[in-house]
Amino acid sequence: MNPVSILLVIVVAFFAGMEGILDEWQFHQPLVACTLIGLVTGHPTEGIILGGSLQMIALGWANVGAAVAPDAALASVASAIIMVKGLGDGSANVQTAISTAIALAVPLSVAGLFLTMLCRTIAIPMVHFMDAAAEEGNFRGVELWQMLAIGLQGIRIAIPAAMLCMIPAEAVTTMLKLMPAWLSGGMAVGGGMVAAVGYAMVINMMATPEVWPFFALGFVLAAINQLTLIALGVLGVSIALIYLGLKDLAKQGGGAGGGSGDPLGDILNDY
Amino acid sequence: MADNEIKLSVADRRAVCWRHQFLQGSWNYERMQNGGWCYAMIPAIKALYKTKEEQSAALKRHLEFYNTHPYVSAPVIGVTLALEEERANGAAVEDQAIQGVKVGMMGPLAGVGDPVFWFTVRPILGALGASMAMGGSIIGPILFFVLWNVIRLAFLWYTQEFGYSVGTSIAKDLSGGLLGKITEGASILGMFIIGALVQRWVSISFTPIVSTVTQAEGAYIDWSSLPGGAEGIKSALEQYSALGPTGLNVEKVTTLQGNLDQLIPGLAAVCLTLLCCKLLKKNVSPIGFM
C-alpha cells in the first residue's frame, strides 16, 4: 500500500472508531467501513462484497443500555485491511482473501469489545475534568473534554489499523496461511452464534409474558422464505396495531359500562 | 413584559440538535451519557443565562447521570429546552423537576428506541444494502447510508421540535397512556422481528449423519444406463424433477440437521438464543462461554 492509501485508511478507521460509540452516521457498519477502505485502497468491488457479507453477520450487533455488543468498527476495518493485504501481493485470489477476512472478523469484534470497555473506563476521569470546568462556568473546558473523549474512541480503531498497514504483506499472508482450516471454519460458525447474544440482550429487556407469543409468531413465520424482511416488518407493525386496538376496545367495553358491561358482576352486586 | 422574554431561536435549537449527535462521545461507566448531554445543552445555556453563576449552575445541572437510546433522546432534550427557557424567564422550575423529566422519560423511551432502530430499521436497511453489496454493487452501501441518515436526521430534528413545542405538558402526557402504548407496541414489533431474525440469521448446523439407506431401483437416477449426449441430460433432468434431490445418489443420506429442519427449521438457533437469555440473566458472559 502506498502512503496516501495508508493515510486515508487511518482516516476511515478514525471515523469508524468514533461512530462505534456515537452510533449516528453508521461509518462503523461493515457495509460502509469496508466499502470506504476498498475505495481508498483501489479494491472497491472486493470491499463492497466483504462489507455486504460482514453486514449480514453484524445485523444484530447493537449497544443496548450499558452492555457493549461485539465491536463492528474494529471487525470491519481490520478485516478489510487484511483482505486488501491478501489481494495486494497477489498471493491469494479474491475468494480466499474475502473468506479469510470474514473468518477473522468475529475474533476481531471480540477484541474490539475490550478496547471499547477500556475507553469507557478512561472516560470516567474525563467527565471529572468536565465537572471541574463546569464549576468555573468554563464552556470551552467542557467542550474540550467531550472532543477528547470522542477522539479517544477514534484512536481506538485508528492505531490498530495503522499497525496492520505497517506490517509487511508477507507477514499477514503467512500468518493467515498458518491458520488451520478447522480454526477458520470454527470461527465462521462462532460468528453465526455470536448473533444470538445480541438478540438475547434485547429479549431480556423487552420480554414480558404478554409479548412472548409474538416472538413465537415471528420465529415460525420467518421459515417461509418468500417473506422478505420488509414483508415481516409490515406483518409485525400490523399485528402490533391490531393487538393494541383490540386491547383498547376490550378495556373500553369493560370500563364504559361499569356495572352493565359485566352481567355476572351486576347480578352479584345486586344480590 | 413580553418583550424582555428570552426565547431560544431556531438557530440555537439547530445547534443543540447538531451537538446532540455527539451524545455518546464521552460515554463512561460512572454517569454514562452525561458529558455528551451537557455538551449538547451548551448553546442553549449560553443563550438563556448571562451571569457566570447561573451558567456554572446550569452546566453542573446537566452533568448528572443520563442514559437512553441516542435518537429517542431528542424529544427529551426538546422538553428540557422548554423547561430551561421557562426557568430563565423566572418561572419556578426546580432542579428536581428538570432531573425528574429527564429520568422519567429516558427509561421508557430507551425501550422504544432499541427495538425500533437497532432491531427493526437497521436490520431491514442493512440486509437490503448487504444483499445488493454481495453482488458487488456500490448501490447497496450508498442506499443504506443515505436512507439511514435521512430517517435519523429527520427523526432527531422533528422529535426535538415536538418536545420543545409541547414543553412541560409532554412529561405529563407521556407518564400517562401514550408512552405506555408506544412502548408496548414497540416491544410487540421488536419481539416479532427478533423471533424472525433468530430463525434467519443465527446459524448452527449439525452435520452428523443419522442414517444411510440404499434406495430401491427406480427411486434414483441410473446414471450408467442414460442415453448419450443431450438426450441423456434431458432424461436425467426429467427423472430429477420427478424424484427430487434424493434421486441423485443410490444411497439416501439423512443428516441430523435434515431431521431437525423437518421438525421445525431453526430449532437449534432458538434454543441457543434462549440459553443466552438465561446465561445473561445469571450474569454469565455467553461470549466468554463460547
Low-confidence stretches of chain A: 255-260
The parts of chain B where pLDDT drops under 50 for at least 5 residues are none
The helix/strand series of chain A, from N terminus to C terminus, equals HHHHHHHHHHH
Roughly how many Å apart are the termini of chain A?
Answer: 90 Å
Query: Count the strands of chain B?
Result: 2
Task: Lay out the secondary structure.
The complex is a heterodimer of chains A (271) and B (290).
Chain A: H1 3-22, H2 30-41, H3 44-58, H4 72-88, H5 94-135, H6 139-166, H7 169-178, H8 181-206, H9 212-221, H10 229-256, H11 263-270
Helix pairs in contact in A: 1-2, 1-4, 1-6, 2-3, 2-4, 3-4, 3-5, 4-5, 4-6, 4-7, 5-6, 5-8
Chain B: H1 10-20, H2 34-48, H3 52-61, H4 73-88, H5 95-133, H6 139-166, H7 168-175, H8 177-201, E1 209-214, H9 229-243, E2 251-255, H10 256-263, H11 267-281, H12 286-289
Antiparallel strand pairs in B: 1-2
Helix pairs in contact in B: 1-2, 2-3, 2-4, 4-5, 4-6, 5-6, 5-8
Note the main attributes of this structure.
heterodimer, A: 271 residues, mainly alpha, 80% helix, B: 290 residues, two-stranded antiparallel sheet, 2 strands, 67% helix
Walkthrough of the structure:
- The complex is a heterodimer of chains A (271) and B (290).
- Chain A has 271 residues and is mainly α.
- Chain A has helices at 3-22, 30-41, 44-58, 72-88, 94-135, 139-166, 169-178, 181-206, 212-221, 229-256, 263-270.
- Chain A is flat and about 75 Å long.
- Chain B has 290 residues and is mainly alpha-helical.
- Chain B has 2 domains: 10-201, no CATH class; 209-289, no CATH class.
- Helices cover 67% and strands 4% of the residues of chain B.
- The radius of gyration of chain B is 29 Å and the shape is elongated.
- The model of chain B has no long low-confidence stretch (mean pLDDT 81).
